[in-house]
Design brief:
Blueprint: H1 2-14, E1 24-29, H2 43-60, H3 63-70, E2 72-83, E3 92-102, E4 107-115, E5 118-131, H4 139-146, H5 157-166
Helix pairs in contact: 1-2
Length: 181
Amino acid sequence: MIFRTMLHALISRFGPRLGHYDVAYTRFRVMPTDLDILNHMNNGVYLSVADIGRFDLLTRNGVWAIFKKLGWYPVVASETISFRKSLQPWQRFVVESRLLGFDEKAVYVEQRFTVDGEIYTQSFIRGRFLKKSGGVVTIAELLEAVGPVPHDARVPEWLVEWGADAALPPTRAEAPSVWGD
């Protein structure tokens, strides 16, 4: 995955520029190292490839440069993925990534794995931004840095509810691992 990440980092630097809310189309091919014992792309690989797609989006829309300048970096807080069709060895596919919007704490990104425009897999990511100096970037700080949200940017209500339901306690709160009887 490291070589694919480095390749796409280079491609993203020279790829067409995007607006903050445009869809990034990132092209891939299923490699032998992506396969599981059933000879299709392993479910865990999808999440790693989705990371590269989000990095491509952030690089090409200029947000990554803003974050680097401010000493911020993104982290995934929650993610969910649904599979429709398997990706096969050597198959070409595109990861379509777009920023949906924000709630009070997080940013939401939708990503689709497509083949010839057909959705094979869909994922949603709830992310936060942290400061290298320590602390969390607030949504107000984020919007001040990257600009206002378009009036038509909407996070579906079910996704906001999922984000709240899937959230773990804050890092400084207790979170004991206790299994029910």
